[in-house]
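Running this now, will post back.
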Amino acid sequence: MNVFSGQRPLSKRLLGFFAVLIAATAAVAIIGLLLGMLGTFSIKGFPNLDWEFLSEFPRNNNTEGGIWPALAGTTLLVLLMTILGVPIGTATAIYLTEYARQNSFFARSVRFAVNTLAGVPSIVFGLFGVGFFIQFLGGGVERITGNASFGDGSLLWSAATLAVLTLPVVIVAVEEALRAVPRDLREASLALGATRWQTIRNVVLPNSVTGILTGSILAVGRGAGEVAAILFVGVTYSSEVLPGSVTDKFMHLGYHLYVLATQSPDVDKALPLQYATTLVLLGLTFLLNFTAIFIRSRLRKN
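Update: finished.
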């Protein structure tokens, strides 16, 4: 090796070249797959995408009409899931980062539980929703209030199930955002006489709000397309009305797509509707994510 030439040996240069080539090829392949999927769905879905398809109710075993109940139900489900899941995940991350001793048995147990939940199949969360939310919580509320709707599948229990499913995503994202806040800011606030909670509320959270929104974005992306987790907890095959309360059943775009693909009496007739429904589901997910990203960028500028 020529120490004074400033050049690496040929073997190391070739190794570095192949490493860059493999990374670039993987990145191009991922982008290509994404563009290919979007192109396929757009080409085959756009001809069937019109205002009637978006605003009408389904007819004739979902092979005719539109997807308005599924579109509205999916939007309400994601919003309610975010309202239920993000505050709990944020509070858990605050406790793990700001209050818990990092090497304590309880903190390690909570992190182990979070990591375990992240790897649990979504269908298991669906069975958990049936056993805990519907039979246990819903049955208890039904006995106290006499309202039988709480003991059945509904929008509320489906959103709660998805909130539990997305908790690991929110907790990890928010915890990383809280750790990114410089320790000096905390110490300066405490030195000025602020309590720990005042420091968290006025210093830590404002500086990590973009990370909290990042966790919300990831949760929306994970929960919007989940079907197995809500299969037994409130989603319905078809509906001619919109959910009037959180205790009503609802239609979901993902489940509607599954019904069109597997249970339609006329598969050939339902195939164009599948592409259009897929395109709407992707568009709704992108719209919700874009809204959260826009809010995050505005807060970051401020």
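Residues 1-48 form one domain. More later if anyone needs it.
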